[in-house]
């Protein structure tokens, strides 16, 4: 009666159960294993596991099994380390990009009367639902973080992110002597007039177009964001002042190259830019931005729609 009950449980439980002797011969193969592998118990029992499933990671798995025989202890694996042992398909409409059933496994030693381990029982748990939920959660967290770094209007980075990256770049500079970077700060010219003449919604559209135009000419490593209302900031890692000036001029040219179309209206825009550099020994991000701001101010003073590179004499003027 007890044996019957055991057999019943082993077959009805929704867990894969099979056992192996020292030479990896299969001694037990429950219904879960039959259903998911398509191999009947009569075929499996007596067969060598690795001959029956040549796709199994033999080196790793035989080591794991061997450790249970030798140490006489339980062993475990989780889907996070190794997503699955057997390539069992998983039939669910939402699989979160997972092709196969995700599995946790437990290896249990079976001792004989003299205390020696003469078989290992392997339990295989289908944890696909958990894995999907965890992946969805991680994706959502990733999106949330990405979202918190973005400016809601333009989609480029926001000031919080720029400040964080600025600090990181400074740390990188103090760690690696060879690292350096430059900053471009730019501000749209007479943007108040755009708002006053065409309305705030048109002004918003202009800001979006500015961001998308600049994005088309940047390098992958450049970090570009909206620093304030109509003020934008770029961090250019491993770029010297001459390179930054070229980039700034490119930005200036693309912004005034053609008017921004908002509905039927064409709005001509331009920007004033300031460029400054962060040298080794520079520890204060604010100082670099201040210097870029002084240079930007000089561009405004000298007629707008121009680029100025920071130099010490700008402090005096
Ligand atoms: N539409 C819109 N306007 C904004 C936004 N943020 C700031 N502004 C506007 O940008 C304008 C900035 O005006 P000012 O600081 O006087 O500068 P300016 O008119 O660009 O003149 P100069 O910088 O001297 O060339 C103000 O009218 C702000 O209301 C925004 O998110 N959307």
From TrEMBL:
Pfam families listed in its UniProt record: GGDEF, PAS
Domain GGDEF residues, every copy: 179-312
PAS domain boundaries: 9-53
Catalytic activity: 2 GTP = 3',3'-c-di-GMP + 2 diphosphate
SUPFAM superfamilies: Nucleotide cyclase, PYP-like sensor domain (PAS domain)
EC number per UniProt: 2.7.7.65
InterPro entries: Diguanylate_Cyclase (IPR050469), GGDEF_dom (IPR000160), Nucleotide_cyclase (IPR029787), PAS (IPR000014), PAS-assoc_C (IPR000700), PAS-like_dom_sf (IPR035965), PAS_fold (IPR013767), Rev_trsase/Diguanyl_cyclase (IPR043128)
GO biological process: regulation of DNA-templated transcription
Highest taxon listed in the record's lineage: Bacteria
GO molecular function, one term: diguanylate cyclase activity
Domain PAC per the UniProt entry, residue ranges: 84-139
Protein name: diguanylate cyclase
Source organism per UniProt: Iodobacter ciconiae
């Amino acid at each position: 009666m007890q044996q019957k009950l055991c057999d019943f449980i082993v077959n009805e439980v929704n867990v894969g159960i099979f056992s192996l002797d020292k030479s990896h011969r299969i001694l037990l193969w429950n219904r879960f294993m039959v259903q998911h592998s398509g191999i009947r118990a009569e075929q499996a029992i007596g067969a060598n596991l690795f001959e029956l499933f040549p796709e199994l990671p033999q080196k790793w798995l035989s080591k794991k099994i061997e450790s249970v025989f030798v140490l006489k202890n339980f062993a475990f694996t989780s889907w996070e380390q190794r997503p699955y042992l057997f390539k069992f398909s998983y039939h669910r409409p939402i699989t979160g990009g997972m092709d196969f059933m995700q599995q946790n496994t437990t290896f249990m030693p079976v001792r004989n009367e003299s205390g020696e381990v003469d078989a290992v029982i392997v339990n295989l748990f289908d944890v696909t639902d958990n894995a999907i939920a965890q992946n969805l959660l991680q994706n959502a967290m990733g999106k949330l973080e990405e979202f918190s770094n973005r400016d809601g209007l333009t989609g480029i980075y926001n000031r919080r992110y720029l400040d964080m990256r600025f600090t990181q770049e400074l740390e990188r500079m103090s760690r690696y002597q060879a690292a350096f970077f430059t900053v471009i700060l730019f501000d749209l010219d007479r943007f108040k007039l755009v708002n006053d003449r065409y309305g705030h919604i048109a002004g918003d559209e202009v800001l979006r177009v500015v961001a998308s135009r600049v994005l088309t000419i940047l390098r992958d490593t450049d970090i570009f964001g909206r620093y304030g209302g109509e003020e934008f900031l770029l961090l250019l890692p491993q770029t010297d002042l001459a390179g930054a000036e070229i980039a700034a001029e490119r930005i200036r040219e693309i912004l005034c190259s053609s008017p921004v179309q908002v509905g039927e209206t064409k709005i001509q825009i331009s920007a004033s830019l300031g460029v400054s550099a962060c040298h080794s020994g520079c520890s204060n991000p604010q100082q670099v931005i201040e210097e870029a701001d002084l240079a930007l101010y000089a561009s405004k003073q000298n007629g707008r729609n121009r680029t100025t590179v920071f130099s010490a004499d700008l402090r005096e003027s």
